[in-house]
Amino acid sequence: MTVVGWLSNRSRATQLLSLGGLALLVGYQSIRVAGRDPDSLLAYVGGALFLLGQVGVLAGLGLLAYRVLAA
């Protein structure tokens, strides 16, 4: 089974949590690799991925909490 197949069989909350967490990790590592160079495009891309990952994780947690409370 591939990763895409595994993700497609999961709920939307699990998908948001998984992809958001992945974006967080990739963004964080990109920022670390870029170092202290203020003109590094990699740092800006990493920062954008990091923020996007935070939004995805928070949306996933919110959706999961809504489903738990609605049940």
How many strands?
A: 0
What's the helix-strand series? HHH
Beta content comes to under 5%
Radius of gyration: 15 Å
What labels would you give this structure?
71 residues; 83% helix; 3 helices
Polypeptide structure, described:
Helices cover 83% and strands 0% of the residues. The protein has 3 helices and no strands. It has helices at 3-8, 12-34, 41-70. The model has no long low-confidence stretch (mean pLDDT 92).
Please render the helix and strand layout as text:
Layout: H1 3-8, H2 12-34, H3 41-70
Summarize the structure.
With about 70 residues, this protein is an all-alpha fold. It has helices spanning about 5-10, 10-35, 40-70.
